[in-house]
Specification:
CATH superfamily of the largest domain: Spore Coat Polysaccharide Biosynthesis Protein SpsA, Chain A
Shape: elongated
Radius of gyration: 26 Å
Structural class: alpha/beta
Order of helices and strands: EHEHEHEHEHEHEHHHHH
Number of helices: 11
Helix content: 40-55%
Number of strands: 7
Distance between the termini: 36 Å
CATH topology of the largest domain: Spore Coat Polysaccharide Biosynthesis Protein SpsA, Chain A
Strand content: 5-15%
């Protein structure tokens, strides 16, 4: 089977029939082998309506979860992923805010460009987030501000989410094989962030679309769900090595400054070592301190396989650190030559050197050896 459309439902009895009608209309001429899989947590007549349509069309499948398993949108998607038979899985809401007519465009983009993930985006050219609310109302301004703010917040923290302009969207398609060696651990309702952060995916593409308003114009999003989303981001930060690596690297770097100043002061004030020798000792010890902290804290998932590999890493780390210091000084002197205040020039030098240091450390020092 080519693809599965996973549709979580929660008391959507008014939307099931128009949603299915529009899906069938959009896919009628495509001649795709597909299934529509509802994962239902409803307490109203929604599952009965779905069963009526199932009797008419064998493409429709239903998983109606018992009360004790109704643990939110994210786990509903996980259940759908487990039951899906398609090579591709399309995720979308059942409230008609995600236009069904976009589904074949997502699949065409994925198959034509051999893309692992295709995101329907509200924030690229040609897209619209009008369904979040009218900008002429305080409610609309508030919802859009929260959506855009959380989008950029997520992209600042997690580099892989920058592959799309809409990492918090719920309308996307991906290859099911991405889940073969991945355990998803979602919290709340932002499943795309989970997939972007935990799967070993390649190319990510986008299709712009217009996010529409609900018929009753009432969002199901709550303050509690917002807190759950923040907890989800924190959980990803703690459990996905790549998620917080740069921040951990910066934290270790800050500790290195403390070690450096401590060794320098101790050498000069207590042991009466001349300042140049004290400075050199402080640099050597602080770099070594950074190396060990990064080994166990920042790159703890990239264990050294042998003593020779450990020696190679520490040697490379000293080389990379010295190169970063030289780069720092070069930027500092360049800033001064252009007339910048020396403190501003120093700050820019530190930021630039930290970024270079992180990139080189990741690519050279803690690069895992290729297995023969």
């Amino acid at each position: 089977m080519l693809f599965t459309i996973v549709l979580p439902t929660f008391n959507e009895k008014e939307n099931v029939n128009p949603l299915l009608d529009r899906l069938f209309d959009s896919l009628r001429d495509a001649n795709y082998n597909y299934e529509i899989l509802f994962v239902d947590d409803s307490s109203d007549d929604t599952p009965d309506i779905i069963r009526q349509r199932m009797a008419e069309n064998s493409n429709i499948q239903l998983v109606h979860r018992p009360k004790e398993e109704r643990t939110g949108l994210a786990t509903a998607f996980i259940k759908g992923f487990q039951k899906a038979n398609g090579q591709y899985i399309c995720c979308m809401d059942s409230d008609l805010q995600h236009p069904p007519e976009v589904v074949p465009k997502l699949l065409e983009k994925a198959t034509r460009d051999n893309t692992d993930i295709v995101v329907a985006t509200r924030y690229a050219k040609g897209g619209s987030a009008e369904g979040l609310g009218d900008l002429k109302t305080l409610y609309g301004i508030y919802r859009r501000a929260v959506s855009i703010g959380m989008k950029y917040f997520t992209q600042i923290i997690f580099i892989p989410t920058r592959k799309t302009t809409d990492p918090l969207g719920g309308f996307f398609l991906f290859k099911k094989e991405l889940l073969s060696d991945t355990v998803l651990e979602p919290r709340g309702f932002k499943i795309l962030v989970e997939i972007l952060m935990r799967t070993k995916h390649g190319k990510v593409s986008e299709i712009p679309y217009k996010f529409l308003a609900r018929e009753d114009n009432e969002s199901k999003a709550t303050f509690a769900q917002g807190l759950e989303f923040l907890k989800h981001l924190l959980y990803i930060f703690r459990t996905v090595p790549e998620a917080g690596r740069f921040f951990k690297f910066c934290l270790v770097g800050f500790s290195g400054v403390v070690v450096n100043l401590g060794i320098l002061s101790l050498s000069v004030e207590v042991f009466n070592v001349d300042k140049n020798t004290g400075w050199l000792a402080a640099v050597i010890v602080s770099i070594l301190s950074n190396y060990f902290l990064n080994t166990f804290f920042t790159y703890g998932d990239k264990k050294s396989s042998s003593r020779a590999e450990s020696l190679r890493r520490v040697t490379y780390y000293y080389i990379v650190s010295v190169a970063a210091m030289a780069f720092n000084f070069a930027v500092y002197r360049l800033g001064i030559s252009f007339g910048f205040d020396y403190r501003i020039a120093a700050a820019v030098g530190i930021i630039a050197a930290t970024a270079i240091n992180f990139i080189l450390a990741t690519k050279l020092v803690w690069k895992l050896p290729v297995k023969a």
